[in-house]
Amino acid sequence: YGDHRDLHSFPTRRSSDLPSGCTLGDDKPFGCKLYPLSYDPQNRALFYDRDCPLMPTYIRQLKDTRSEASLHLAGMRKEIKALEKSDPAFLERNFNVDTEFFDLKRLPSKP
Q1: Cis link prior to 36 (omega < 30° from 0)?
Q2: Kindly report the CA angle at 47 between 70 and 86, in degrees rounded to 5?
Q3: How far is residue 46's CA from residue 65's CA, in Å, rounded to a whole number?
Q4: By C-alpha distance, which of 105, 106, 81 is closest to 91?
Q5: Model pTM greater than 0.70?
Q6: 3-state SS assignment for residue 98
Q7: What is the distance in angstroms between the CA of the first residue and the CA of the last residue of the chain?
Q8: 69 Cβ partners below 8 Å, 6+ apart?
Q9: Which helix (H) or strand (E) holds 106?
Q10: Alpha-carbon distance 79 to 87, whole Å?
Q11: What would the pLDDT profile of 44-97 be if each residue is shown by its tens digit?
């Protein structure tokens, strides 16, 4: 699995000085699509990687339901809901890996 913090950022970037992010597009694994977020299935809570330099912008963008971050979060919630039904053990394993590699903090419910 490895430390993928350097490889990913949320879906698109609007500034040329940000990391280029993952180039796998829609084919990237769930954990990569979810990053910088992480989902704890036992508590049904979202966390984020505190070391991700995009998180202050991501959290600010959550105030606008049409923003990139809000669209990313909504899409991830749909995928999480489907995985809760089809493969809850996968969600648990994914979260366990994330807790090993990232400094996680709970995503605020009201940014």
Answers
A1: yes
A2: 80
A3: 17
A4: 81
A5: yes
A6: helix
A7: 30
A8: 10, 57, 58, 59, 60, 61, 62
A9: strand 104-106
A10: 11
A11: 999 999 999 999 999 999 999 999 999 999 999 999 999 999 999 999 999 999
